[in-house]
Structures are given as structure tokens and as C-alpha cells.
Amino acid sequence: MRVAGEPIAARRLIPEFYEARGFRPAWVRAGHAEALVRLVAASRDHGLDPNDYHAAALGRHLGDVSATPDAAVRADRDLLLTDALVRLAYHLRFGKANPRELYPDWNFPRALGAIEPVQALESAIAAASLEEAVEQFAPQLAAYRQLRAALARHRAIEAAGGWSRLPPGPTLESGMQDLRIARLRERLAASGDYEGQTTADQDRFDAALEAAVRRFQARHALDPDGVVGRQTLAALNFDVAGRIDQIRVNLERLRWVAQDLAGDYLVVDIAGFSARLYVGDRVAWASRAVVGRPYRKTPVFRATMHYIVLNPAWTVPPTILREDVLPKLAADSRYLEREHMQVVAASGRPLDAAQIDWSRYRAGGFPHQIVQAPGPDNPLGTMKFMLPNPHAVYLHDTPARQLFDKRERAFSSGCIRLEQPLALAVLLLDDAERWSADAIRAAIEAGETRTVPVKRRVPVLVLYFTAEAQDDGTAQFRPDLYGRDPRVLAALRAPFRFSPIDGRRAPRR
Length: 509
Known about the structure:
The structure is a single chain. By secondary structure, the chain is α+β, with helices and mostly antiparallel strands. The chain has 17 helices and 19 strands. It has helices at 13-20, 32-42, 55-62, 71-94, 99-102, 117-126, 130-135, 142-159, 180-190, 207-219, 230-236, 240-257, 318-331, 335-338, 421-429, 437-445, 485-493, and strands at residues 2-3, 6-7, 265-269, 274-279, 282-292, 301-304, 307-310, 314-315, 341-344, 350-351, 369-372, 383-386, 395-396, 410-412, 416-418, 450-453, 459-463, 467-469, 475-477. Helix 1 packs across helix 6 (117-126), helix 2 packs antiparallel against helix 3 and helix 3 packs antiparallel against helix 4. The longest helix is centred in the N-terminal third of the chain and has 24 residues, at 71-94. It is globular.
């Protein structure tokens, strides 16, 4: 179905909408069509593409819908305006890409909930302010607002000519004099990191420039040592268009999950190596985290926290068993003894490791489990947080505390290690009398494995963001740890189409 040469996407919803209003035109108020044209143009501020919402056709044909006496032309214009609004509202609420096509195990809801599409469309068009009505479809999140500010800031930089590349050469550091240092100063001024005054000696690496380099490094997940080495040079030479795309990708990710980011919830940011518990929409707890290595990726998923295990034993997961433990056992018969591990049958009965021919299982197929007893060397530390999910991923303590001092913390086999597990346990157990911090420490010191149901059964959202921002639009960028940004960007650049959402009412096409 095409109208005014444009494909109509909402092929079911639009007929239902006009039937419900007795086939009367919808876009008859003075300035109403112009308001939608402005909203379509402003979709760019959300990182979306105005051409997905008939921007060119609206600019060519629409203008004032009452200007032509031709009823057929006016009807076509009305339909085109309505379809543009449906498309835009849909993308603002759910995102343009379908995350389930990008990630087969995606289990976040994409539902209209209590929204009735025909009524919602009628309400938006009838609203005193179309702009305010449409903006309500977008995520009402501080993180989304801040990223939009960062997008505007970077587009302004791009419009001003962007920033220049720094030529290759030796490492630059404080006190040096080099012809490239003036270029470094210009580059950092363009991105807002250098706030010093122009100096007579532009080629000298002074204290103000060092402070600017440190600010830049902190914003790009680099060691803020004030030295321009290989990694810092690469980040400096990442062009502004690439940063704009990175922000757009992360705005899209927020649209996918905005409905889940409300009330009490625990979010793990894989690329940010961090975890935060929100209670009543405020951060009640935050911690650095260790996540899966790039070849043992931590998955993106949603689950609900159920219980905490104090002094947990560690059952070696199948992948680690096959790729790490069995090869070591085949080469060293005393490996289990040194690591305080034992072989356990499916029935739970301990087995004698000396009676097993380990060379048979070099390639896998081991029929039993290997379990490490609780203790100071147990990889799970003093506690683990259980959120049943098909990936067998959970959150836990760790004895390897030194890893939290590293900038990039991808060292696990998929599970999530927390720097501050005790404070999280206190908040989740939510029982000041029975489970204070001191009471939890005492239970751990007793050495007994205990399973404790949590009182605060929060949803746990394991997500992946490579950019975030502050209120003033200052952006923080992170490496794309698992190489996931390009597929999202490609989906944003693809032609418009509706993607399925959950529930009986959608999609109406």
C-alpha cells in the first residue's frame, strides 16, 4: 500500500483508526501538520533517521493540508501524516531494531501493556501539544536525556568541522616539546577537554595540557596517566562521526529496555564493568564488576534475584571443565587435591579420583561433576547471588580482589564478580535484625553453606552500553568489548520496517 508515492507501514492500524473516527480527517487543526513535520525532523535528536518517517515526502507535498481543494490529495496527505506519527511513536517506544534478531536469547519484554493503539493514536493527535504527546513515547530516563545532550554536543562539534587527527610519533608527556603538541592542544580543545588559555609556547606539554589529557583518558576508559601513548592516540584519532554513531547505538539500546528501568532493579553493565542497585529510582549500591572474557561472553538477559548462598561450593561449569580442568587433570593427577576439589556423581555421591582414567576425557564427555569446597581459594568467594536463567550465570564474590584495580575487567568465564558483595547482600536480604552486615559476616565465619532467600526480589538486568553521559552532555565512551556495536548501527541504517512486539494488540500493520 502506497500513498503519495510512499509505502504505508501501519496497514492495519490506520484503517482501524479512521474507521473509529467515522473516516473524518485527523490533521485539520491549524499548525498541526507543521508540528508533526518538526517532530519528524527532530527525530534526528534521538539518533533516529527522519527519512524513516516520510521526511522527504512531508517536505515536498504536505505544507498546509487545507490548501488544496482536491479531496483525494487531502486524504492522501492525512494518511501519510498519520503513518509518519505511528512510525515515529513506535520507534521512540520500542527502538528501530528488533533486539531478538540481533541476540537470539533476548528475553526482555516488548509489549504495549495497557496501551490500546487506536486510542493512543487518537489521544496523541488530539493533544493540545503534539510535541509533548509524542515525547512521552520516548524513554523518560535521565540516562536517555543525558545521551541526547551528548549527541547534540557531538553534532555541534561535527558541524564546526570536527577535530583533526594527531600524526603518529613518539609518546607525548609532560615537559616535552614537540611540533605535534600544538595539534594535541587543538584536538582536546575541540572536544571540550582542554580548558586552558592559548600559550606563547604551544609546542610544550605543560600542566594544563596534562590535565586535559587526563580528563580525556578518564572519559574514554583509559588509564588517566596524562601520557599520550598508543591507546590514547587511537582514542584521540577516533573521528567525531564515529562517536556520534556510538551514541546513537546506545540511545537505541536504552529504548529497548526503558520499560524495565523503573522502580527497584539491579543493572549490570557488561561493557562498563559495573553493577548498580536502584531502589525507588535512586542508586542504593554500586560496585565495580568483572565480566566474561571476549571468548566467554557474559550474555545480555533479564532474570529475577531469588536467593543468596553463603560459603558456596563451586561446581565447575561444563565449559571450564572441558576446556580448563580436564586437560590439567590429564597432565597432573594431583590437581584436584591441590585445588580442594572432589569428583561427585550425579547422585551426589563422592567418587575416588584415583580410580578415574582422566586421559579418556581430554575432549570432554565427562559424566560426573567436579566440585570445589568452600574456602579462601574458592572462585565464588564468600557468597553468590542466584537469579535462575538458562545461561547459568550468577553474581558472586571473588578472592581475586586485584582484578578490580584494572581498567578493563573481562576475566571471567561468563559469570559476574562483584567488588562490593556484602553491601548488596544487606540490601537484598532487607532484614536489619537478622541479616545486618555483622550477622552476614558471622554466618560466613561459621563456615557452613547456607541458602538465604532474598526479601527484595528485584529484576536483574544484564545489559551492554558503550557510551553514557552526564547532564551537561559530557560523554564517557568505552571500548566495544564484544564487538556488538556494528550490528546495532547497521540495523539503525536499514530501511524502515515494523518488528514484532509482545501481546495480542501488536503489531498492527
